[in-house]
Amino acid sequence: MTEASIIGIHRHRIATDGEGVTTLVGFWGCPLRCKYCLNPQSWQTKDSQSKSITPEQLFNNVSIDQLYFLATGGGITFGGGEPLLHPDFINEFRDLCGDDWNITIETSLNVPLENLQKVYQSINNYIVDIKDTNDEIYKKYTGKSNSQALENLSWLIQEVGQECILVRTPLIPKYNTPEDVEKSVELLQEKGLTRFNRFTYITSGLDKKINYYQEKARND
Q: For residue 125, is it left (φ>0), alpha (ψ between -120 and 50) or beta?
């Protein structure tokens, strides 16, 4: 059975990571290096904060909350890190939990298209952290181009429709402006998207956390 490394399991989340009561499962591993990353431990050297787990072990761990999931239309939200780096794990987990649980993923979509194609039928809802549609801004903030992410988003819209896709378009201090955010929203609306999560990154305290993991990575 497939194994994956996770950095945490957080139960009883409400109206934060999808519909109803959800359990957030954070994967280790990410292709991006965002300057204000909330979970930099997801892309640094594996340590005591990460552990390997099989889909069956995860199911046995989280099924304690099945009544909450069924009563509220909730389920599991896979975040990270980048959950689309682990399509086989998610598919195997879906086989175990069946169709009664909602599976949501929080993703940058910045992965090979084949990863998305392999797993999209196992997923009910998508929270897509698009950051900014301007490639220059995106590169400065993440260290990578957004061309793959935008191509994957277009494919996903065609395959599943816009109703199950929520797009995050944050205002990122020092990297984009309110005008940049509006341009991103306009471009995404042209693709047919209607559901947006607009907010401003609160960066206080994040620099210290990120510097700790960067220093740790240099020493490992």
A: beta
Stated pTM of the model: 0.90
Nearest to 65 by CA among 105, 120, 16, 102: 102
H-run or E-run covering 11: strand 4-14
At residue 106 the predicted structure's pLDDT band, cuts being 50, 70 and 90, is very high
> Could you tell me if 168 and 193 are in contact, meaning their C-beta atoms sit under 8 angstroms apart?
no
List all residues 6 or more positions away from 59 whose beta carbon is below 8 Å from its beta carbon. Answer: 93, 96, 97
Unique residue bearing structure tokens 């897509």: 128
Contact 115, 33 (CB under 8 A): no
> What is the domain range of residue 31?
4-219
pLDDT value of position 110: 98
Alpha helices in the chain (DSSP H): 55-62, 66-72, 87-97, 113-119, 135-142, 147-160, 178-190, 206-219
Q: Where residue 84 sits, what CATH number does that domain have?
A: 3.20.20.70
Provide the number of structural domains found in the chain. Answer: 1
